Amino acid sequence: MPTALITGITGQDGLYLAELLLGKGYEVHGLIRGQNNPRTELVEKLVPDVTLHTGDLLDISSLMRALRKSQPDEVYNLGAISFVAYSWENAAVTSDVTGKGVLSMLEAVRLHAGDDLSSVRFYQASSSEMFGKVQQVPQTEETLLWPRSPYGVAKVFGHYMTINYRESYGMHASSGILFNHESPRRGPEFVTRKISQAVARISLGMQKDLSLGNLDARRDWGFAGDYVEAMWLMLQQDEADDYVIGTGETHSIREFLDLAFRHIGIDDWSSYVKQDPRFMRPAEVDLLISDPAKAKEKLGWEPKVSFQQLVTMMVESDIEAARAGW
Ligand code: NDP
Ligand code: GDR
Fold first, then answer.
1. Is 151 a catalytic residue?
2. Catalytic activity, per the record (predicted)?
């Protein structure tokens, strides 16, 4: 039975990935941060078969201990400070966790594996946010990186460190350049979930309106459940490599609002949505659209859930949650 260690197990992707790997018969271990992490309960409820180890990407000795205890064949490094807007106000800690944390995990794996480096495969959660001021549309694995946020800069560091460990030590280290992926488990600070939660509550008369930033921003949005499958596929290849993962479609926040409000029977949402400068960013990324051709050809990966299905899934789930008082 293969064994996997996941950092960021409490996050959206960590939970879907743990479910996927458990379904494939893996023994799954997760790194959990803090002395009393409030999301432990959620992990124990959704994926009770995962073994948890306390640890932090800021503390390499805790990573070494988690590796020693779990003895993984595969390490998925999903842990990060992942909210782009937060990264401008907390650039140093974002750099430490999202950037230097990758180096700590790579180094911990290298030291742990010793002479048998090929015994552990490594996945790094890179991001389309690295493209920032885009130099080419759609974006491929070869597109020049020009990050536009401290988060993006930190991800570029982690991305190149992963490539560097592959090239320097022959480590089986792959990097998934994932475009935005969402789900009912998405954190409520991200725009899609902020909208789906608000629309659900508006439909039940529990909320009047919703404040957002730039409604013209566009993203290539997919379903997180599809994307964790791509992570796993990358580590099943003979050769480690980098892959762009996305849908190849772009939609604006306005289009997301159109579909979400239409789902509750509202065609004109203008009186429900306010624009608030607090949610504007110091710099925006340009037009993000993926070209996932390499993933399709080499991994046989394609997204299954459409944009419309994704919006519907999120609004319905939040209506159910609001009704149940969660
Ligand atoms: P989430 O924000 O939902 O989860 C982030 C995880 O990182 C949480 O489990 C969090 O744990 C953990 N974490 C934060 N700080 C530390 C730390 N110091 N040490 C260890 N763990 C830490 O992110 P997603 O699940 O959405 O994303 C997973 C990864 O993929 C992230 O690296 C993200 O940057 C990247 N990514 C995500 C995309 C997306 O669209 N979702 C697209 C491209 C890349 P805690 O509960 O303790 O806070
Ligand atoms: P992003 O996701 O920054 O792409 O990062 P987010 O949902 O936060 O923003 C997407 C776009 O929506 C615009 N926007 C708002 N965003 C938020 N959060 N709140 C608002 O009120 C709002 N109004 C408009 C933003 O300006 C932006 O253009 C996500 C994270 O998961 C990263 O970790 C990951 O690397 C990238 O996706 C790919």
1. yes
2. GDP-alpha-D-mannose = GDP-4-dehydro-alpha-D-rhamnose + H2O
pLDDT of residue 284: 84
Ligand 1 lined by 40 (C-beta under 6 Å): no
* ipTM for this model: 0.99
Rounded to whole angstroms, the Cα distance separating 257 from 249 reads: 17
Q: Where are the domain boundaries for CATH 3.90.25.10 in the chain?
A: 187-219+249-287+305-324
Backbone φ and ψ for 43, nearest 5 degrees, come out as -60, -45
Q: In the chain, where does the domain assigned CATH 3.40.50.720 lie?
A: 3-181+222-245
Helix (H) or strand (E) holding 275: strand 273-275
pTM: 0.98
pLDDT, tens digit, 9 for 90 and up, residues 271-318: 999 999 999 999 888 799 999 999 999 999 999 999 999 999 999 999
Catalytic residue from among 62, 74, 104, 129: 129
CA-closest residue to ligand 2 atom 17: 191
Residue 235: name the closest of 176, 156, 169, 159 by CA.
176
CA dist., res. 236 & res. 298, Å (int): 11
* Ligand 1 center–CA 299 separation, angstroms: 24
Q: How far is residue 9 from each of residues 12, 20, 28, 256, measured CA to CA in Å?
A: 8, 13, 10, 28
Beta carbons within 8 Å of 116's beta carbon, 6+ residues apart: none
pLDDT in tens, 33-48: 999 999 999 999 999 9
- For the domain spanning 3-181+222-245, the CATH number is 3.40.50.720
Q: Whose CA is nearest to atom 27 of ligand 2?
A: 217
What's at 168, amino acid-wise?
S
In sequence order, the β-bridge partners of residue 52 are 30
Annotation marks residue 284 as catalytic: no
- Our answer to whether residue 41 is catalytic in this structure is no
